[in-house]
Amino acid sequence: MTSSENVITLNVGGTTYTTTRSTLSKETDTLLANIASGSLSDDEQVTVVTMPDGTLFVDRDGPLFAYILHFLRTDKLSLPEQFREIARLKDEADFYRLERFSTLLSAASSISPRPRTANGYATSGAETGGYITLGYRGTFAFGRDGQADVKFRKLHRILVCGRATLCREVFADTLNESRDPGGPDDGERYTSRLYLKHQCLERACDLMAEKGFKLVATCCSGANGLAAANHPILTSNMGNINQTELMNHRNCGDYEEQRWAHYTEYVFFREPQTGYITPSLREL
């Protein structure tokens, strides 16, 4: 177990990081290794200030230091896709005298970015990002005489809207494409005509969660309530149907479902799997 003496807190340009001295010492003959061991030279002591609470302050780029710390922890370079600050990060690597890290940055700067689609999401990789909307028209069956207890919920069909390839990735064999058939090579086609082979909303939401999607928006329309006895639709001339017969018709099961019909949409989003990981020099 790591002792508390091995834990060290750094304040890099106003951003606080907590790590271990052994992590900072992964690369020898570096400024960070000297900070960890407490053997700073006179010149290094000018750039590293000890705060009253024991935190060591370094006046460098705070956010970029996260990539340096990740490299020391994993021995790999991991950068977001379309990362545009390699030159600045290389300056930080030179300041800390991290030669291997600087070499990996030079190699990464020559790597071409992965191809992207028109909507900005990468087409390669195990997972892509984007939006999927689940929509359904449902009804609620209430007890007689307008009782508040809901007996059951009935879904007629769960619609799936989004990029076809992304919908297939999430729902696989449970996706019914009979209304909008396409093949695996239909590109980045978007559709709103797909639906699921089952009517279990919870099952669909579980699949979305398992695939890393999060609910970001929802909307609902409907349901119509009871009309008063003097409502125009009840007092109008509707042939030979009197008001009592019409009210009996309204309270029947079929009309009950129509009256409480509603349409709901849930919008889910998953962040694109961005970034690339370059191998360490030991793996090359």
UniProtKB/TrEMBL annotation:
Residue ranges of every copy of the BTB domain listed in the record: 6-81
One Pfam family from the record: H1_KCTD8_12_16
SMART domains: BTB
Species, as recorded: Caenorhabditis latens
Coiled coil: none
Record InterPro entries: BTB/POZ_dom (IPR000210), H1_KCTD8_12_16 (IPR057093), SKP1/BTB/POZ_sf (IPR011333), T1-type_BTB (IPR003131)
Function (record text): Auxiliary subunit of GABA-B receptors that determine the pharmacology and kinetics of the receptor response. Increases agonist potency and markedly alter the G-protein signaling of the receptors by accelerating onset and promoting desensitization.
Compartments (UniProt record): Postsynaptic cell membrane; Presynaptic cell membrane
Single Gene Ontology BP annotation: protein homooligomerization
GO cellular component, one term: presynaptic membrane
PANTHER family to which the protein is assigned, alphabetical: GH08630P, POTASSIUM CHANNEL TETRAMERIZATION DOMAIN-CONTAINING
Protein name: BTB domain-containing protein
Swiss-Prot/TrEMBL keywords: Cell membrane, Cell projection, Membrane, Phosphoprotein, Postsynaptic cell membrane, Synapse
Domain of life: Eukaryota
Keyword Cell membrane: yes
